[in-house]
């Protein structure tokens, strides 16, 4: 499925920024290419820089990376539920609370990259299993209707958004 095939009704408008962070891409290809590009960037960052925050009160690079991982896990679970026609209204999650409890300061660069890759590879495997029909299925998350495809494009765009921030503000 391509970005242009995703309708505004398939995701909460809050996530529009992430959708707009993507060009015209095919979802499964973008999940893979996004991982490859992001890992290349992460390997270029010195380990000492992972504890850097560009401003008081902002997350460190390690915390940003764990935020991406946590978000991927939550959205992957949502996509799985929606793909199986689970009609439960899934809860939101408070990203700042998750970041506080992430234990990022005690993690190595290698462990963070390995965890990110494991989670993204799991997302790729899940999305590779979906048919076009399944991608169109919807469910409720945080009181908003979202499609399986919407969850995937949000994940891809969310990472692209944070990659740009890392490049512009952290490096």
Defining traits:
single chain; 6% strand; globular
Give a verbal description of the structure.
With 171 residues, this protein is mainly alpha-helical. It has helices at residues 16-20, 27-44, 61-83, 95-100, 109-128, 132-136, 148-170; strands spanning 89-90, 138-141, 144-147. Strands 1-2-3 form a three-stranded mixed β-sheet. The chain is 58% helix and 6% strand.
Describe the protein's topology.
Elements: H1 16-20, H2 27-44, H3 61-83, E1 89-90, H4 95-100, H5 109-128, H6 132-136, E2 138-141, E3 144-147, H7 148-170
Helix pairs in contact: 2-5, 2-7, 3-5, 3-7
Segments where pLDDT lies below 50 for 5+ residues? none
Judged by helices, strands and strand pairing, the structural class is mainly alpha
How would you sum up the global shape? globular
Helix percentage range: 55-70%
Numbering strands along the chain, what is their spatial order in the largest sheet? 1-2-3
| Rounded Rg | 16 Å
How can the largest sheet be summarized? 3 strands, mixed
Strand content: 5-15%
Distinct helical segment count: 7
End-to-end span in angstroms? 33 Å
């Amino acid at each position: 499925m391509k970005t242009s095939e995703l309708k505004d009704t398939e995701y909460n408008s809050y996530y529009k920024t992430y959708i707009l962070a993507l060009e015209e891409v095919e979802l499964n290809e973008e999940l893979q290419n996004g991982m490859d590009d992001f890992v290349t960037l992460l390997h270029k960052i010195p380990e000492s820089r992972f504890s850097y925050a560009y401003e008081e009160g902002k997350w460190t690079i390690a915390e940003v990376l764990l935020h991406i991982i946590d978000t991927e896990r939550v959205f992957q679970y949502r996509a799985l539920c929606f793909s199986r026609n689970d009609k439960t209204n899934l809860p939101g999650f408070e990203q700042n609370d998750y970041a506080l409890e992430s234990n990022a300061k005690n993690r190595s660069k290698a462990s963070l990259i390995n965890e990110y890759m494991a989670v993204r590879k799991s997302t790729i495997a899940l999305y590779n299993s979906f048919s076009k029909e399944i991608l169109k299925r919807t469910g409720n998350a945080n009181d908003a209707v979202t499609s399986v495809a919407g969850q995937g494009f949000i994940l891809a765009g969310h990472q692209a958004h944070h990659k740009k921030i890392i490049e512009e503000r952290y490096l």
